[in-house]
Known about the structure:
mainly alpha, globular, single chain, 7 helices
Amino acid sequence: MSNSTSPHPDLWRYTRIKLWALVLLRVAIGWHFLYEGIAKLLNPYWTSAGFLLESKGPLAGLFHGIVANPTALRVVDILNTWGLIAIGLALMAGFLTRLASLAGMVLLVLYYICNPPLIGTTYSAPSEGAYLFVNKNVIEFLALWVLILFPTSKIIGLDGLIFRKKSV
């Protein structure tokens, strides 16, 4: 990847270590999404109801309304579980990576909006630390954005095999 108008064209070129670092980031995020989805799928008692009821974000009423409607809650649970699995598999395999990254970003924004780490908000589930605005959802969102900007799956991944341009 080269940008000839840049004063530093080598800055945008993938070195072997840059490429592998980005691929490892993609696979690690993919693993996280996949694991979260499989954990939900394998737990017959899992539901997003508790997380949604904890909402103190700007759309709390919407999230609470989902819990109040059993059909809507079931749809959200299925979409969440299978969305996590699909995003995780796609990122790990390097398949439709930009789309998977974008879908992951949307999911992370929804998680963040539901339960934002703001001053004065407490949740029943323990957090991994004391956050103010920036939590793991924000960090993973930004990492997915990096993966959109630097599409390693075209080099190492199924995207490169499937969408390879054939020379004439």
